[in-house]
Amino acid sequence: MMSSFIPGLQLSRDFYTQVVQPVVADVPHSAALIGPGSEVLAFDTERSTDHDWGPRVLLFVAPHLSAQVEAALALRLPDAFGGYPVVGGAGGTHVTDAATWFTRRLGFDPLEAATTLDWLATPWQRLAEVTNGEVFHDGLGVLEAARSALRWYPPDLDRYVLACQWRRLAQQEAFPGRSGEAGDDLGSALITASLAGDLVRLVLLMRRRYPPYAKWAGSAFARLTATAELGEALSRAAAAGDWRERQHHLGDAYRRVAMLHNRLGLTEPLPATTRGFHDRPFQVIDAQRFADALTAGITDPRIRALPPIGSADQFCGSADLLTDPRLCRAMTRAVLGL
After folding, report:
1. pTM for this structure?
2. Which of 11, 20, 87, 88 has its CA nearest to residue 60?
3. What is the pLDDT of residues 208-233, one digit of tens each?
4. ∠ CA 41-202-254, rounded to 5°
5. Cβ contact 179:187 at 8 Å
6. Helices and strands of the chain, counted as H and E runs
7. Which residue pairs from 269-275 have beta carbons closer than 8 angstroms and sit at least 24 positions apart in sequence?
8. What is the C-alpha separation between 64 and 144, in angstroms, rounded?
């Protein structure tokens, strides 16, 4: 039986074109599907339709027009479209102005110059939500400008975040072997899975993709081109039955990621080979040398002097913090001294 599922992005695009746009045609506006929701990142499936999913549009207008437009939409828009109930707002629309929406979602307005705090306090998931999805109409000229400004980190912050991700690997890369050698196979497996997750996020960052939160990280990685063999190495490492096998597959993954680093040209080429961990029988990539090389290439002394802990995603795993821009900014400011 063929599925009747329609991806949410397509559904919302049609909803805007056929239903919302005629109502607001005479009102200067911008319209999009950005922000929260699996459909924004095109990860939605039929399973997604069971909650908070359906035709919807984020509509931006001048602040003094919000109430008027919202009232008109509530009166004229249907309760369902394409066989699905509309979601939230005035007949499936959320009416706001750009500065208010971006500030609530990100903690700052990207139409103003973004600061180091703005970049490092904004979780990757939020940056992905704003730079993905689709703009249906940009009559106000605000959405494409904001999305362009957030497309990727400025060069020095790019190097800083990549360096901090390599440093996360450096802190644990010898532990799968050490735990396994000590008889703690569960610990070895847990650390290997953690390292695989950090490698996935590192590669996404290298390819200039903001890593989504954990549920979609593997899906985002799988969509990258030319990463199938790396993905197989990571899967084998995570599924391996003993620490030596894990080390073998992690070593394969490390070598591939090191070669990817060299192709970026952000530093002088570094040997993409594993090596012994001091005089212990554990093979590592010595990830700190990649972090050091990236840090040395940072030209802004203020960024180079930041503590080597990175953005909010890299030093905090609390979903309660990462989904609250106020808390995220307060924590980042305190931790990084910004």
Report:
1. 0.96
2. 20
3. 999 999 999 999 999 999 999 999 99
4. 135
5. yes
6. 18, 8
7. none
8. 22
